[in-house]
Each structure stands twice: as C-alpha cells, then as structure tokens.
Amino acid sequence: MIIERLELKHFRNYESLDLDLSHGTNILFGNNAQGKTNILESLYVACTTKSHKKSKDREMIRFGSDEAHICLHLKKNDVPYKIDMHLRKSKKKSIAINGLPLHRASELMGIANVVFFSPEDLNIIKNGPAERRRFIDMELCQLDRMYLSDLTNYNKCLSQKNSLLKDIISDRRRSASLIDTLDIWDEQLLNYGSRVIRRREKFINELNEIIHIEHQRLTGNSGDFQIYYEPDSTAEDYAERLKNFREKELRYGTASVGPQRDDINFLLDGVDIRKFGSQGQQRTVSLALKLSEIELVKREIHEAPVLLLDDVLSELDSNRQKYLLDSIGEIQTVITCTGLDEFIRNRFEIDRVFYVENAKVTEQSKKGS
Ligand SMILES: Nc1ncnc2c1ncn2[C@@H]1O[C@H](COP(=O)(O)OP(=O)(O)O)[C@@H](O)[C@H]1O
Ligand SMILES: [Mg+2]
Hints:
Elements: E1 2-11, E2 14-20, E3 25-29, H1 36-48, H2 57-60, E4 67-76, E5 79-88, E6 94-97, E7 100-101, E8 114-117, H3 129-143, H4 145-170, H5 176-219, E9 225-230, H6 238-244, H7 246-252, E10 263-268, E11 271-272, H8 273-276, H9 279-301, E12 306-310, H10 318-328, E13 333-337, H11 341-345, E14 352-357, E15 360-364
Parallel strand pairs: 3-13, 3-14, 8-12, 12-13
Antiparallel strand pairs: 1-2, 1-4, 4-5, 5-6, 6-7, 9-10, 10-11, 14-15
Helix pairs in contact: 3-4, 4-5, 4-7, 5-9
The structure holds adenosine-5'-diphosphate and magnesium ion (MG).
Magnesium ion binds near residues 36, 37, 310 and 336.
C-alpha cells in the first residue's frame, strides 16, 4: 500500500496542508511542537479511524474551528482510493471512500494498513498488560473485520454485564430476574469472547514464528526467544470459569473473567522478560515485536503496510538504529525527527525531506548518502 497524498484542513495546528509523499522514505524534520507528529497522527486516523494517542475527535480539530478534514489518496494493489474523513465537534465523524459515504466508521478498517512506532512503544514490554492487549487489538482490527466486530460486541456486552453486576450489588435482594439477565450476558460474552481468544491465539502464534528470527538478527545471538499468549481463559475452559467466578463477580461487582485480562508473555531462555529483562533487552524485544508486526501484515494481506516512525530513531543506540533502517527496505515510510544526523551517519537513502515549522511544510533538497 502506498499513501500518495495527504490534504488537511483545520487538523490540529494545520490550517491547511497539501503534501505529496514519495513511495519510499519520507522525512519530516524540525524543532519540537511544530506539527510533525500531527501529520503522522492524521495519517493514522485516516487509516484506522482512531488516534494513536487515543485523542478524541474534537481534540484533533484546530482550536477555534468546528470541523477538521483529512483527505488521503492511496493506492492498494495499484487500485486508487480516496479517503475523506470529517471530524466534527459534537457529532460522529463522517467518512467517504471514493466519494461514497460509509454507514459506519468501522467499514474503513482493512482498506489501509499502517504500523505506528513511537518511543512509547519501546516500553510495551515493561508496561502493563493493557498496552499489550492494545497492540494486539490495533493490529488485528486492521487485519480482520470479523475480529473487529467480535471485539466490539464483546466490549459492549462486557460493559452491560458490569453495570448489571453493580445493579445487583445495590439491590440486596438479588432478584432472580437480574441474575437470569446475567446468564444471558455471560452467554453472549462466551460467544464473542471465545472467537476473540481463538483469533488472538492464532495471531500470537504467527508472530512467534517471525519474532524469534527478528530477535536473533537484532542481537546476533541464538538464545531461545519465544512469545506466548497468556489468555485469562482459554476457549475451552472459559464457560466453566464464568460459572466458577460468578460468586466472586457478584461480590466485587466487576466481570473478572475473559479476554479483557489477557496478556502476552516474552521468554528469553525461559526467563520472563516483562519482569526480569534489562531495559536494553526489553527495548530490543519491543523493536523486534514492531518489525514482526510489519512482516505479519505482509504475510496476511500480501502487501506491505505504511510505516510511521515518530521520533523513534533518537531513542535507539546506533546498532539498533542501523538495524531498524536496514529493515525498512522497500516499505513506504514516514519518519519524524528533529535532525538528519542519524540518516547521514547510517548512510541511509532518503527519498523526500520536508522541513516542518509552525505548521508549514517545505520540501528540502534531498539529503543522505
Ligand atoms: N487541536 C489543536 N489545534 C491547534 N493546535 C494544536 C491542536 N492540538 C495540538 N496543537 C499544537 O500542535 C503542536 C504540537 O504538534 P506536534 O505535531 O506534536 O509537534 P512535533 O513537531 O513536536 O511532533 C503544539 O504546538 C500544539 O499546541
Ligand atoms: Mg512529535
């Protein structure tokens, strides 16, 4: 997939932007707070409907404006697409593909595949399980519409169940009808949740096949590196655990069983890197995980995703910088940074260089080796 052109109106600090991108490597450089990350965010939002930093639609609209517009021209398998997205203050966003409005934002998923890599992603191993679940979900929702629909339904049922549990707790009589309703929600959760669990299991098994190769290349050693799915419940024992935990759930008023408590484990020679890895090991694994994500997308959809690298290079030592730059290969990439040193030092080929200052983007003559 290739993003050919981005147009912005009233998005973040941009009043208006018109940017043609190269099919190869694009660099956006400039001082802090000028609008580099905002460009990556707009690309991510237009491809996935969501901000990589979980911002709300209205927060992305330029201060003082009522509406933001992102327009993306892309090519997938040589077929051109135009994505138009309007973010609005108090209404849902509207999206059109090639001029045809979508009924739901979720219909956009799967058209455009992007992988976002920010310095925060380097902490994915040492951070809590919620970040790792988000990693799985953001990728799987792009790859698999069935997963997106199962997960959305699962989360809806889960919040219904949680509010019902609270109602039951405040209703001391524990009326039978409320408990019966709880059974109905559990049945739904079991239905959607089992599918979510199976898909996550498949995804992590596929990632595992790739990641130990990336990890070996990165570290140059052949230590045994594996990732494992750590589901709260397996598809097999899920029903039984829902029954067993019923009393506990009624006591605490929250649903305590299911994929909302899943995790991924990372083992290096049998040692849990989440808990016992050095900071360097954890960062190496994070990098390997991101690179594996790209490879997996290639395998699944037979096309490379667009890679968005937000200020990541300066966070890496020169070996890891070189490894990352070498791995980019033929993938279309948009990189933000404050200076061009890393590229020059690593003799890295750049196709287009843009200087970003106060929401104005100007193309510079080509630099690099
Ligand atoms: N909704 C908004 N409207 C106008 N400006 C915004 C909005 N949201 C963020 N900004 C501005 O965008 C700038 C940060 O842009 P960013 O892309 O994160 O910078 P950087 O170049 O460091 O990556 C800040 O000056 C901030 O005030
Ligand atoms: Mg930034």
